[in-house]
Write a structure and sequence with these properties.
Shape: globular
Number of helices: 12
Structural class: alpha+beta
Strand order of the largest sheet: 1-2-4-3-5-6-9-10-13-14
Radius of gyration: 26 Å
Distance between the termini: 69 Å
């Protein structure tokens, strides 16, 4: 056997054993963490009674060291507090390992109607500000839980904090309404606040199809009684989400075909295509008033699920509860990306800093330590501690958006130009660009094959889209100096369609110079020269352009204004980069297809889906543009 052949065989052997070696290493690490938790904490399980008599399963981990009293850190979740049994322990406690080392009493609760807790589960249970006696909501369940914990768990110091990400973030935000006096600090992280306007399932009334479908395929199944096992499977029978969802058929029938009619919330949701009382009751933002605990809201600039919720909790607490100690943290993270990993990059985009580690050590832990243990912090937390992408640096501001930010508009011009100067041509017949929109061949949202909502789409290269005939592209020249934008982006379009309905997707993109260096190492072989990094993109379902409650059809061929806000950003376009805007009418399968006819979209038949020609105007009287806030 030749030397080269021996090397090849050795390499193949290493490749074969690597997965099992990595798995064994992971198991060893978990065993080590589990041993550390068992050595330092004792676990108890309680069934805590609520005011209506239902009992909620709560796992409590108490430090064995009794030389001091400890605050309680509570997390309420629909995702299970398992493993179940007083002798079955979690292998990690708290928002991060820093908390278990610092010493807390950790309480984890299955919310009403989920897993081992009694009662009926209601998705985003509406808050009831007029509760009487035994009436309940998530605020009252939180209050009753804290009341029981501070009276019955030994060695607590009488102070409670709450924390949770995503759905548990909703329960955290709901728990700080009409809060128990012992609740001193809350951190809603990527909290769900409004499932029609901007969180998870809908953006401006448009359905984020793979996200809702795939989540509810497992989460939205019957649980007639408390159980320790609840893990339904769903098989798409293909890895290709574009193909799967294109063939899905009417959404009103999808639940029967794919979920056997067992997905109750799916069936409810597709009956409510407008922002009616069903969705309005689940708008938590309106109830964020007179908040007593200190609040640390956390979100990620590239959170595909609940970026809206984080920004909205901060904004509404500030507006409706101005005396509250209300703080915001925004980093360059995907959904929950601050809770694990180092946060040094996302997809192809580096951030040149271990942002998540910094957050956990210097922001999150000190927030709770100061408020629950009266420990002084080395650094006083500003109102907004936010990461500026592009330049990749943490910034501190006394408000968000920064008070120094000023409006600047970028106008669509002929030849695909994007300019600070508005157009002067008054003739709409000449001053427009148009593109075809075919629902049978919608624009993909990412240049990859996958079955779901890939989280890296939030920073993904958009060159594939800009080369399609059904996407308009407008770009500045290379910037001569840095441009920093901070806060919301407003898309203000003047459009027409040959159909009677349409979606309008606007994407704000950072175009890298052609000589931008590739990453090192570069196992994926990505080419960063000319990379078109999505910075922010969103959709307005055209029928809701004037009202989410009362949809309106378009008059074919008639110029119409469509104005909507995209979520906040904090980004510096570096000198030599270009600012690009892309406009399109489909974003599939991320957003469900618009038939482009004014029908009930959830019940639309294939014959309702029709091609249309879209126009975007750029004249003196119809000046399509985007407006940003620029920081000097």
């Amino acid at each position: 056997m030749t030397f080269v052949r021996r090397l090849q065989l050795a390499a193949l052997f290493c490749i074969a054993i690597l997965p099992s070696y990595v798995a064994a290493q992971g198991a060893d690490e978990r065993d080590k963490r589990l041993a550390e938790v068992k050595a330092a904490y004792t676990k108890y399980e309680y069934r805590i009674p609520m005011r209506d008599g239902k009992r909620l399963l709560t796992a409590v981990y108490v430090p064995k060291d009794e030389s001091q009293k400890y605050p309680i850190l509570l997390t309420r979740t629909p995702y299970s507090v398992g493993p179940y049994g007083a002798d079955q322990y979690k292998d990690s406690l708290g928002p991060s390992s820093l908390f278990s080392k610092a010493g807390y009493i950790f309480a984890y609760q299955d919310v009403r109607g989920r897993w081992m807790s009694e009662g009926e589960f209601v998705n985003m249970r509406p808050h009831n500000p007029e509760k009487k006696k035994t009436e309940v909501d998530e605020s009252s369940d939180t209050y009753d839980t804290i009341e029981w914990l501070v009276k019955n768990v030994k060695n607590n110091n009488g102070k409670v904090g709450m924390s949770g990400i995503s759905y548990p973030g909703f329960y955290t935000a709901a728990g700080m309404i009409d809060a128990h006096p012992a609740l001193k600090a809350v951190s809603p992280q990527a909290p769900v606040t409004d499932w029609f306007i901007g969180d998870d399932w809908h953006h401006n009334g448009a359905l984020f199809l793979p996200h809702m479908f795939n989540f509810l395929a497992r989460f939205d199944r019957p649980r007639p009684e408390p159980t320790k096992k609840f893990d339904p499977k769903f098989d798409h029978d293909t890895p290709d989400g574009y193909d799967f969802f294109l063939k899905l058929g009417p959404l009103s029938e999808a639940g029967k075909r794919h979920f056997k009619g067992e997905a109750a919330f799916w069936e409810e949701a597709i009956k409510h295509e407008t922002y009616d009382d069903y969705w309005k009751a689940r708008n938590l933002r309106q109830h964020l008033k007179d908040i007593k605990p200190d609040v640390l809201t956390v979100g990620g600039w590239f959170d595909a699920e609940n970026l809206f919720g984080a920004l909205e909790v901060y904004k509404n607490v500030k507006k409706n509860s101005p005396k509250t100690n209300n703080m915001l943290v925004m980093g360059p993270w995907v959904h929950g990306g601050w809770s694990g990993g180092d946060g040094a990059h996302l997809g192809d985009v580096p951030f040149n800093a271990k942002t998540a580690e910094f957050y956990r050590e210097h922001i999150e832990l000190p927030f709770f330590e100061r408020r629950l243990k009266d420990k002084s912090a080395d650094v006083v937390h500003p109102e907004a501690w936010v990461f500026e992408t592009g330049s990749n640096v943490w910034r501190k501001h006394d408000a968000w958006p920064p008070k120094s930010a000023k409006e600047k508009s970028f106008y669509f011009r002929a030849g695909g130009k994007l300019s600070e100067n508005p157009p002067s041509d008054p003739k709409p017949e000449d001053g427009h660009d148009e593109y075809p929109s075919d629902p049978s061949k919608p624009v993909p949202f990412i240049d990859k094959i996958d079955i779901g909502m890939l989280k890296e789409y939030m920073t993904a290269d958009q060159r594939f889209a800009g080369r399609r005939p059904d996407v308009l592209v407008f770009s500045t020249d290379a910037l001569e100096e840095d441009v920093t934008i901070a806060g919301p982006i407003t898309a203000d379009l003047f459009v027409s369609t040959t159909g009677t309905d349409s979606d309008w997707i606007v994407k704000v993109i950072d175009v890298y110079p052609s000589d931008y260096p590739d990453p090192k190492p570069n196992p994926a072989g990505v080419k960063m020269g000319g990379y078109q990094q999505l910075l922010r993109g969103d959709v307005m379902r055209g029928r809701f352009r004037n009202s989410f409650e009362k949809p309106e059809a378009f008059t074919p061929g008639e110029p119409t204004r469509v104005k909507f806000a995209l979520n906040d950003v904090y980004h510096t376009f570096r000198s030599g980069h270009r600012i690009m805007i892309q406009v399109q009418s489909s974003w599939f399968p991320l957003v469900n297809r618009n038939p482009q006819t004014f029908v009930d979209i959830y019940s639309a038949k294939e014959s309702d889906y029709r091609k249309a020609t879209q126009r975007v105007f750029r004249t003196r009287d119809l000046p399509s543009h985007v407006t940003v806030l620029v920081v000097p």
